[in-house]
Amino acid sequence: MKKLSFLAAILICGLICTTCDLFKDQVKEPAVTLDSIDFSDINFSGLELLSNVKVENNMSVNIPFPKIDIALGLFDIIDPFVTLEIPSGGTLKSSDSTVIPVPTKIDFASLFNLVAKLTDKDQRENPMYKIKLTTYIPVEGYGEFKIPLEHEGLLPLIKVPDISFASKPKATIDKSNFLNPTGKIEFSLNVKNNSNIAVIINALSFTPKVGNYSLSPQGIIGKPELKPGATTESIPITLSLSAIDIGKIGLDLLTGNNLNCSLTGNYLFGIDFPLVKEIGNTFTLQ
Length: 286
Prior knowledge:
Blueprint: H1 2-26, E1 31-42, E2 46-57, E3 63-64, E4 67-74, E5 82-86, E6 91-92, E7 96-107, H2 108-115, H3 121-125, E8 128-139, E9 143-154, E10 162-174, E11 182-192, E12 199-210, E13 213-214, E14 218-219, E15 225-226, E16 235-241, H4 243-249, E17 261-273, E18 276-285
Antiparallel strand pairs: 1-2, 2-7, 3-6, 4-5, 4-8, 8-9, 10-11, 11-16, 12-13, 12-14, 12-15, 12-17, 17-18
């Protein structure tokens, strides 16, 4: 009898251990990593930070889609700049991995108001960010896995450039042919990159106007690259004037240094960011 009881105890212990091992095999903590951090959209009003969270379901059963909390902070400021929650929905397949895109939008107007209060100029121009993501994965019969993630980096600030006359427009007229006079207007432009990342001027086109008369549209040739805070070397511009242009403008306006000339146009900057190749805007120069 004692022998049977002893064998039964061994059998029960074996079953318990086997069950525990099976349970351990069934319930394995999901592996959560930051697959990548990209800036998926950027313009002069703001940008979108895209965090790709990779969740590996190591269990042999499907589990609910996780809920993700996000806190985006700047510098060492305790209060987060952006907070939001990505609700759960659907399921994660068993023994499989899923990449969850987590977008975070940043409004430059609010950001500039915050960084303007900083006394350190380098911090204002090159703000560091830290993003904290907490993933909550519920598993039936076990509880909830709470997995925190962190990442920090430099926040790109895209600011409207300064476009200005490097030299004032000056007109000259060739009067050698009295019946068909020709002329030209010469000036130069400067473009200052106010952003904290390098840009390339892919296009700069404009319509010159002298007084109320519009000349033919113009554009620059070449693609100068501007480092953060840099200003181009003076870009020379020469506008050809026909006899009709001269007649429309009026000889009284062609007085050299006092020429009343304005420009209205567009520019396109090339930037090296994922999914974002060009960014543009309009400008008016008088």
